Amino acid sequence: MRTAFRRLIGLVCFLVLWEVIVRLGVLPAAVVPPPSTVLVRFAGLFSDARFVPDAVSTVLSWFIALALAVTVAVPLGVLLGSIRWLRLSLSPIVEFLRPLPAVALIPLVILLLGSGAQTKIALAAFASVWPVLFNTIYAMGEIDRQLLETVRALRTPPLRRLFTVLLPSIAPFTLTGVRLSASISLVVLVSTEYLSGGTIGVGQFVYLWGTSAGRMDMVLAGVVFIGLVGYLVNQALLSAQRRWIGWAATGGAV
């Protein structure tokens, strides 16, 4: 409760400062509306028939992209973390792909997949694979060697070894990677909606209100929605991490 209260105090101070700066004319209200206006517009978003489909599309696509990234990254990370020669063989490809900006691939992916939801899901999944993958590989290297030797000496079947030793051991690092990937995935998803066109989503909602109508209050209301969703999902993942793997220190490597 004390931590939540301190966070609330910080948020209130930020909003008050923002309101005062705009009201004093330091920032033009037409470009940066005060939070009192933005919050009113935000509250009205959910009664807007145009916004609700955009919000559903963005959130659903986000979860699909994140699920795809985890489905690919965790098994691949376990494999690469277990087989050194395979990790070394694939490292040039991985290191080439990792720094590629996902939004730069928009034209290529549109040609391959079209301009629908599959494009933003594919790009968001591509961008969010790397934190989970590298955290999983790092975690595999941190598993206690004596523990691995013990399960080998006991001739534990590979599948049982995976679910009783490997996955529980790498869980703190992998979940940290998932939290990082959730933020990256949301950024890339909304950016793709904004830049690519031809698809619904909060990114397109922000683009249309900003370029066609010049309504910065609606733009910032959409931004508040994106930030709030991202914050809530991050807090949910953090709570799950503390509850389910509280026996291990939260850690990770990027």
From TrEMBL:
Keyword Transport: yes
Record's subcellular location: Cell membrane
SUPFAM superfamilies associated with the record: MetI-like
Domain of life: Bacteria
Keyword Kinase attached: no
Residue intervals passing through the bilayer: 59-83, 95-115, 121-141, 212-233
Biological processes annotated in GO: transmembrane transport
InterPro entries in UniProt: MetI-like (IPR000515), MetI-like_sf (IPR035906)
Pfam family of the protein (one): BPD_transp_1
Name of the molecule in the record: ABC transporter permease
